[in-house]
Design a protein that fits this description.
The chain is an alpha/beta fold and 486 residues long. It is built from 18 helices and 21 strands.
Length: 486
């Protein structure tokens, strides 16, 4: 059963397009061939991911009778649109870049061509398909670049994601974008992503009774601290290797108790593989703990740092504490990201004619025509620059020995191109990332022909309304006597 995954304006425009009063010269607007392109506005760079979500949304398009009745009974009257989608199976054509292809803001990474009435109603499907995957993977890429390729990155965001389906998606796209594993057991179960997790603070808290009725430390004959008891029990329960969380009370105290627990028996020493610090100055505390454990006969431990980490903090930690082995990322991976992709869907062709939204804001002006994204590769295998142009162009890019057309057929007549596994998509993202000499300053331009088409079309659109200033008066303030009658 499909859902009404549309805005009301899609339903209203769709319904109006089937009415004879809104015809183009020779056909109903609903039947006019239209092309809409898809891009993202907010991220400096992002892998294009979500193709499999788009396929699911396109396939699951049939609307059930209660929802059709809801449309038919709409106060504005949407009976024609309801009839059109009653047995809707989208049969238009979609082009897209390959999964994992890294693109930049404002570049077209997909387009769709079909009859206007139903094609315009696909907008939300594209936005829902690509927005979260690209946002998450771009964020993960930025964490990976900050941490360096040799350090471990773990997705600890499950608790911040609102529901399990969103959490699974975030685990998947963080993994593709550069993370190594996840704490999310459902994602690990479904998708064979490695699952990890340490003890929580309340493991130590659960042993507080030993503060009142302590065990005796055999080496000293003195009472053990309850945190040492908790660490010993945890090491005994995980003899094959585990990580101890040090900051339940105080990191320095936690390190002392962890060292005492780990050195109390040989099996506990073997089980102690790493430590985690979750608060305070992570670089300073991590470095101190690593040196403390080494001085007390516990070398080669993994230093794992967590605690509301963002990209900027990781860069600082890596600079100050390069021995850090890994990071657990939660809130700043999913619920507090600096920017979302902001995927948009804009009309660029109607009945073979280019069209655009000129706008009063240059950053909201869209591109006209049948677009293509061209990427140049130098003789050393590195990418040298991108050009967004028209599909009919032959583009050359300075420094490139080859130029690739990135927009390729993806969906036609209900069939879609193969979608690689998440492991293969992860490999594509990693391989592509290493082929950009400087992702932050990569050259992306428009072709001269596309720029001219955009500017000429904008000028013509505005010129067709020349003289309108003489027909209207614009007062400095709006008063009641200037209001149109209700």
């Amino acid at each position: 059963m499909g859902t009404l995954n549309i805005d009301r304006y899609h339903a209203a425009m769709g319904d109006a397009s089937y009415k004879d009063a809104t015809r183009l010269h020779d056909k109903l607007l609903s039947e006019a061939q239209a092309t809409f392109y898809v891009t993202q506005r907010k991220l400096p760079f992002a892998p294009v991911l979500g193709h499999e979500r788009l396929v699911r949304l396109l396939i699951d398009s049939q609307i059930d009778r209660p929802r059709l009745r809801f449309l038919e009974q709409d106060r504005g009257g949407l009976k024609l649109f309801a009839k059109a989608i009653e047995d809707m199976h989208f049969v238009g054509a979609i082009r897209a870049v390959r999964p994992g292809t890294i693109v930049f803001a404002q570049q077209p990474f997909a387009d769709i061509t079909g009859a206007f009435g139903l094609t315009q109603a696909q907008e939300i499907k594209f936005e829902h398909a690509f927005d979260l995957p690209m946002t998450t993977a771009s964020t993960a890429m930025q964490f990976r670049m900050a941490a360096g390729d040799q350090r471990w990155l773990s997705d600890f965001s499950l608790r911040r994601n609102g529901d399990i389906e969103r959490a699974v998606d975030i685990a998947v796209y963080a993994f593709i974008g550069g993370f190594n594993d996840t704490s999310n057991m459902e994602a690990a179960h479904r998708l064979d992503i490695p699952a990890v997790g340490t003890e929580a603070h309340y493991w130590q808290q659960a042993y507080i009774e030993f503060m009142y009725d302590p065990e005796i430390e055999p080496r000293t004959g003195k009472p053990k601290h309850f945190e040492q008891v908790a660490f010993e029990r945890w090491l005994d329960a995980n003899p094959n290797g585990t990580t101890l969380l040090l900051d339940t009370i105080d990191v320095y105290m936690g390190a002392v108790h962890a060292a005492m627990a780990a050195t109390s028996t040989e099996s506990r020493r073997c089980a102690f593989k790493g430590f985690r610090v979750d608060s305070g100055d992570l670089a300073e505390l991590g470095r101190w703990c690593l040196n403390f454990f080494k001085a007390n006969g516990l070398p080669n431990l993994r230093a794992n740092l967590t605690g509301d980490l963002d990209v900027k903090k990781i860069r600082r930690i890596v600079k100050e504490f390069p021995e850090a082995n890994g990071f657990g990322i939660g809130t700043k991976l999913s619920s507090e990201v600096p920017a979302v992709a902001g995927v948009i869907f804009k009309e660029s062709m109607i009945e073979g004619r280019p069209t655009l939204k000129a706008s009063n804001s240059p950053d909201k002006t869209t591109l006209p025509g049948k677009l293509q994204l061209f990427r140049g590769t130098g003789k050393d295998g590195y990418f040298v620059g991108d050009v967004t142009g028209l599909d009919s162009e032959d583009i050359s890019i300075p420094g490139a020995v080859s130029v690739e057309r990135l927009l390729r057929p993806f969906w036609e007549n209900g069939q879609h191109a193969a979608i690689p596994s998440i492991e293969k998509q992860k490999a594509v993202v990693e391989e592509q990332r290493k082929r950009f000499p400087d992702l932050e300053n990569y050259p992306c331009t428009l072709s001269a022909e596309l720029e001219k088409l955009r500017d000429d079309l904008t000028e013509q659109m505005r010129a067709d309304s020349s003289g309108w200033e003489d027909l209207l008066t614009f007062p400095e303030t709006l008063t009641d006597d200037l209001l149109l009658p209700k």
